[in-house]
Amino acid sequence: FFFFFFFTFFDSSVKNVFDQEGFSRQKRGYRNINDIEVNLSDPLFTKQWYLINTGQADGTPGLDLNVAEAWQLGYTGKGVTIAIMDDGIDYLHPDLASNYNADASYDFSSNDPFPFPRYTDDWFNSHGTRCAGEVSAAANNNICGVGVAYNSMVAGIRMLDQPFMTDIIEASSISHMPQVIDIYSASWGPTDDGKTVDGPRELTLQAMADGVNKGRGGKGSIYVWASGDGGSYDDCNCDGYASSMWTISINSAINDGRTALYDESCSSTLASTFSNGRKRNPEAGVATTDLYGNCTLRHSGTSAAAPEAAGVFALALEANPNLTWRDMQHLSVLTSKRNQLHDEVHQWRRNGVGLEFNHLFGYGVLDAGGMVKMAKEWKTVPERFHCVAGSIQEIHKIQSGNKLVLAITTEACQGKDNFVRYLEHVQAVVTVNASRRGDLNINMTSPMGTKSILLSRRPRDDDSKVGFDKWPFMTTHTWGEDPRGTWVLEVGFQGEEPQRGVLKEWTLMLHGTQSAPYIDQIVRDYQSKLAMSKKEELEEELDEAVERSLKSLMSKNN
């Protein structure tokens, strides 16, 4: 009362003073599973926090794939086939049998049409079955849980269970029935030991190229790849599958929004889904199907993340079967959300057109509801062009304590047929040798000021001979940017011991389009937000000035 009396006495601008009545407001995102209109009878459904997170298993409420919205819109994956390239699928499992596509399945380890997992006492070959359940486990059958796209068809491609992988087996798996299979999910890659640099061989590369160009009647096969489980010791840009432009690389978050301890970071990751929790809660893993008709709550890793993404993409394909492989990447960039994902080291940033990204999580967690709504109205993206923006092939020495800084200024092939105005992928093809490869650190900054960490330190990599030979480090962080201007590459060493090296080549490859209307709109929205934030800053400064004046006036009157 004294405050109102004092304020009205000294401030003639106050016209009236009213008593305020209290009423309730509820935090959005804090949901009870019974309040969501999804009625499924499957016993593990309430434990599938990554589908609908109400705080189960000590998780963060609202941190999920938002599948409920997609399901409520009527999208459950009908008419879409996802292939699980793995160690086989228990296609007799009662939660998978009704959605199993036998015609699209094959066993490339045994060369027969029956990709059933090979029995071992420790159930080592349960990986593919668990991944399959995440995507296509049937709903309302009182068995295990449900798949993200529970009315989709799942195919088994058994190709991991032999002593050694071959280029022919990989290529055959990736190119198996590309007119029937829509999405290929791969939760494997080179060894995640922090010292391997490896990727697809010649036949597999050709199979991938043919897939994106000819698969699905020319719309392109969609390849989903787990980014890797090497943790802070590894970098997924050293994995040629996850860092390929033709794949959608998926990282994982745990149920409280942090990165998992095994997650690798790299600039090629496009988006994230979920794995497990750090706390020892027995229900914090991914609930899915297991071998021999069983269920499990303990599936985890980026192995679990990739199939979840494949399921979300299946929902989007049902909403719009005409989506191309590039459309799916654009939709992932535009609809993924920061939500409550956070990391202590890598902060969220915005690129030159205002798209928010993170070095670990890509453009955020996939949002199934947002993706299907945008997919319904989506128009196929324009033709894609490739431009060699420039190349530096002189020998440059690298010393500990001194960063090597190189620059390429480009017009992005402007005036030519292959002009790139709006970026999708950018590759820095690098040849470099070092006394210790694992201590190398490579960053690249775009003309619009976006910094991509192309290679971070890998403390277990002792290589001093092979180095990187024309290795295509890739970034998605400059998506939508104008590539014209000066690109800067910084190469240096991190680590306690002094190192030396030689950079022999840096070739800058730009991939993108000549038109992108939605990018122009994003830029306008971003600029509007910036202007609004500046206005709010000015208003805040004004409020603070008024408050200081009032305090001064009150002290004088006292």
From TrEMBL:
The record's annotation in SUPFAM superfamilies points to: Galactose-binding domain-like, Subtilisin-like
Q: What superkingdom does the record give? A: Eukaryota
Give the signal sequence positions: none
Gene Ontology CC entries for this record: extracellular space; membrane; neuron projection
**Localization in the cell:** Secreted
Q: Which InterPro entries match?
A: Galactose-bd-like_sf (IPR008979), Kexin/furin (IPR034182), P_dom (IPR002884), Peptidase_S8/S53_dom (IPR000209), Peptidase_S8/S53_dom_sf (IPR036852), Peptidase_S8_Asp-AS (IPR023827), Peptidase_S8_His-AS (IPR022398), Peptidase_S8_Ser-AS (IPR023828)
Keywords of the record, alphabetical order, are: Cleavage on pair of basic residues, Disulfide bond, Glycoprotein, Hydrolase, Protease, Secreted, Serine protease, Signal, Zymogen
The record lists the catalysed reaction(s) as: Release of protein hormones and neuropeptides from their precursors, generally by hydrolysis of -Lys-Arg-|- bonds
Main subcellular location:
secreted
* CDD domains registered for this protein in UniProt: Peptidases_S8_Protein_convertases_Kexins_Furin-like (cd04059)
Q: Where is the active site?
A: D86, H127, S303
Task: Tell whether Metal-binding is among the UniProt keywords.
Answer: no
List each copy of the P/Homo B domain by range: 380-516
Its Enzyme Commission number(s) read 3.4.21.94
**GO biological process entries:** peptide hormone processing
Molecular function GO labels: serine-type endopeptidase activity
Please indicate if the UniProt record lists Repressor as a keyword.
no
Looking up PANTHER family in the UniProt record yields: NEUROENDOCRINE CONVERTASE 2, PROPROTEIN CONVERTASE SUBTILISIN/KEXIN-RELATED
- Biological role: Serine endopeptidase which is involved in the processing of hormone and other protein precursors at sites comprised of pairs of basic amino acid residues. Responsible for the release of glucagon from proglucagon in pancreatic A cells.
Concerning its family, UniProt says: Belongs to the peptidase S8 family. Furin subfamily.
In Swiss-Prot or TrEMBL terms, this protein is called: Neuroendocrine convertase 2
From which organism does this entry originate? Sphaeramia orbicularis
